[in-house]
Amino acid sequence: MVLAVGGVYVFIFRVDRDIRTTIGSLGSVHLVHGVYGYVGSARGAGGVRARVLHHIRKEKRRVWWHIDYLTTLPETVPMYIVYAKTSCDVESLLAHRIGLSPCWSGCTRGFGSSDKDSYTHLYLCSCSEELCIDSIAEAFSAIGLEPIVEKVDDII
């Protein structure tokens, strides 16, 4: 069960068919069907648990983050959350480490990173689901964090 602690996370979801949608100031974005990982942080009230519950909710009172534009679409299916407790701002560092993995490729410049120096915080998986999850966990470990992997179904 994802704890209500501050930390950094990767929200892993599936896009069931190619989509084109408008995402705030990013404009029109095209995503091919596949498995994606979104890197985020939640160090405020409610922590990672509250943020992930917000992401998986299809109906939102307010579309706040870039990821919200995708998670409201019927074509997106939440799968996993990989997270670690931390009070440090390591979101961009984690995103960079994930980008070094042969299983993940960055897509959509500026997605989730408009307030960071990162190219993107949205990645497309090109390996098996298991390898993609393992490489995310390795990225956490590489920056000194202990990753916890949970299926989204187990937290709702």
How would you describe what is shown here?
The protein has 156 residues and is of the alpha+beta class. The protein has one domain. The protein has four helices and eight strands. The chain has helices spanning 47-56, 66-71, 91-99, 129-142, and strands at residues 7-15, 19-23, 27-31, 34-42, 76-85, 104-106, 122-125, 148-151. Strands 6-7-4-1-5-8 form a six-stranded antiparallel sheet. A hairpin with a 3-residue loop joins strand 2 (19-23) and strand 3 (27-31). The radius of gyration is 14 Å and the shape is globular. The N and C termini lie close together (9 Å). It comes from Ignisphaera aggregans. This is GIY-YIG nuclease family protein. Pfam families: DUF123.
Please write out the topology.
Layout: E1 7-15, E2 19-23, E3 27-31, E4 34-42, H1 47-56, H2 66-71, E5 76-85, H3 91-99, E6 104-106, E7 122-125, H4 129-142, E8 148-151
Antiparallel strand pairs: 1-4, 1-5, 2-3, 4-7, 5-8, 6-7
Which structural traits does this protein have?
single chain; 156 residues; alpha+beta; 6-stranded antiparallel β-sheet; two-stranded antiparallel sheet; 8 strands; 25% helix; DUF123; GIY-YIG nuclease family protein
